[in-house]
Amino acid sequence: MNLSASDPDARVKALLDMFREAEPRLRELPIYNAALAIEAIGFRQADSEMLIGVVLTPWFMNLVRLPIEPVAFDAAALGAAVMVALPAGQRKFTINGDAGVGLYEAHSLHSPVLGFCTQEHARAEAWRQLGSLLSPPPEEIPAAAASAPPAKTALDRRALIFGRPREPS
User: Fold this and answer.
1) Would you say 112 and 68 are in contact if contact means Cβ atoms under 8 Å apart?
2) Using an 8 Å Cβ cutoff, are 81 and 105 in contact?
3) Residue whose C-alpha is closest to residue 30's, from 107, 106, 111
4) pTM (2 decimals)?
């Protein structure tokens, strides 16, 4: 991979090729799930500089932020933690990479992935995680409203049926 390339599809392919090259060395490890294959799931442009999506391998599932313009490999940067603001909140990513792909950021979703029986099962989980992390959290109910007793209704059963206002008790 030429580090000057900035085609998003080529960038994701180069990332997957990096993991495919490492796969033979990992097949005999106890964390390797032979039911799974290396796959990129849901990659899209996160902003003007980054792609974001899930990388699934037989040994992990990571949310990955991949620079559209490759960032030159720097071994000193490997393993550094970076906090990233996602719609669902702050998440810690770790800097990874190699000379062919350059640097990228990864947030572990599942490692290892031994609990997945099929590629479809793992893929569904990847899509679920993407939806969850890339969507804002639902609005929270203010504590006062959550603890307040329910409002009393002005209608009772008879009033509902016959259309009469509730009689005072």
Assistant:
1) no
2) no
3) 111
4) 0.79
Contacts of 25 (CB under 8 A, 6+ apart): none
Domain locations along the chain: 8-133
Fold of the CATH domain 8-133: Yope Regulator; Chain: A, (3.30.1460)
Using alpha carbons, list the distances in angstroms from residue 70 to 5, 88, 153, 156: 7, 26, 62, 67
Of 138, 136, 139, the residue nearest 87 (C-alpha): 136
At 139-154, the pLDDT tens digits run 755 555 555 555 555 5
* Three-class secondary structure assignment of the chain: CCCCCCCHHHHHHHHHHHHHHHHHHHCCCCCCCCCCCCEEEEEEECCCCEEEEEEECCCCEEEEEEECCCCCCCHHHCCCEEEEEECCEEEEEEEEEECCCEEEEEEEEECCCCCCCCHHHHHHHHHHHHHHHCCCCCCCCCHHHHHCCCCCCCCCHHHHHHCCCCCCC
Pair of tokens at residue 142: 């203010």
